[in-house]
Amino acid sequence: MGANRMTIAAFAGSLAREEGKEGSMEESGSTLATLWWAMLRLIEKHGIDPQQFCRTLGIAPDVLRDVHARLPARLADVGFELAAARIGDEAFALRAAECWHPSNLGTMGYAWLSSRTLHTGLKRIERFSRILGSRIRYRCSEDADGVHLAFDHGRGDAAIGPLLTDFSLSILIAMCRVNAGKRTSPVSVHLRRREPANPQPWQDFFACPVTFGQAADGFLLASEVANAPLSSANVPLANTFDAILAGQLATLIDDDIVSRCKTQVLQHLTSGVPSAQQVARALGLSQRSLQRRLAALGLSFQGVVDETRHELARRYLDDPGKSVTEITFLLGFSEQSAFTRAFRRWSGMAPSIYRGLPAT
Fold first, then answer.
1. pLDDT tens-place string over residues 165-196
2. 2-226: in CATH 3.90.1520
3. Run of H or E including 140
4. What angle do CA 103, 97, 134 make, to 5 degrees?
5. Under a CB-based contact definition with an 8 Å cutoff, are residues 238 and 318 in contact?
6. Does the predicted TM-score (pTM) go above 0.85?
7. 256-354 maps to CATH 1.10.510.10
8. Do domains 2-226 and 256-354 have the same CATH topology?
9. Which tens digit of pLDDT belongs to each residue from 289-318?
10. What are the CB-based long-range contacts (under 8 Å, 24+) for 13-18?
């Protein structure tokens, strides 16, 4: 422990100097401070004194109660490394599912609880994930197999990556089970980590086939599970939370090209979908630069437009006060049939089916 203490103390002591050299905390990565409560409960379950753990890392517990506070991502990485060395169980982070509370995720936690469906909640996590951690990414998509959730911890092949994946996905599955029932499980789970000597803890927790050594981390939910209406849904409240989260995201990453691009699309939708050239000009970029920066993220301008309209369509359809005709024009479609075709392409169902009404 003495060696570990010296290593962490040296890290904490040099952190401020490193941030000063490299730029802002957001450039080097940060995490929501309140998420650390889940981490502290996790290590306490494994016999580590959480107060001593905080002192070792140089973290003031009062900071963790501040819903607006953020901590450097590298501090979280070192914390996981220290915990792993102390605990000696490569599956220890799966128990994070027992340790989270909605308040640990700030506004996101309560927005999740009010989501109309698990699919809606996962799209919300995807959209606002950088509030939780600026280096992590979630990607939610649907096809004939079901609803896919891909997770990227943002650490490449670093040894700490699998622990961050276990921590994040176990909490996310626990969140699904809170909303949809304790027996809710994915159809399958795929993990980048090498197959452990004893894969049973992963199989027991996820309660489905788990494959290791894959190209990406994530899971698959059956469409009927992901799109089933939730009894905990509160659409007006969810929309209020979304507005709060959008403000937090804009403050946190006002240089995020995808968020900035979506903002421009949203501002112009009621008068028609803006062109890539129009959006690029509004962002102070050439069209080629915009497309190149989106391509570097594996995206296209048309894909961003479709995703923006799809997200907004779901939110509008969740509002019983808006008719499909009104939504059609709010999304920039010239006629209802065009909106219906687009929504069917995005989600595999007609707007009326999504809304829970008989198909017309």
1. 999 999 999 999 999 999 999 999 999 999 99
2. yes
3. strand 137-143
4. 60
5. yes
6. no
7. no
8. no
9. 899 988 887 889 999 999 889 888 988 888
10. 13/58, 15/58, 15/72, 15/74, 15/75, 18/74
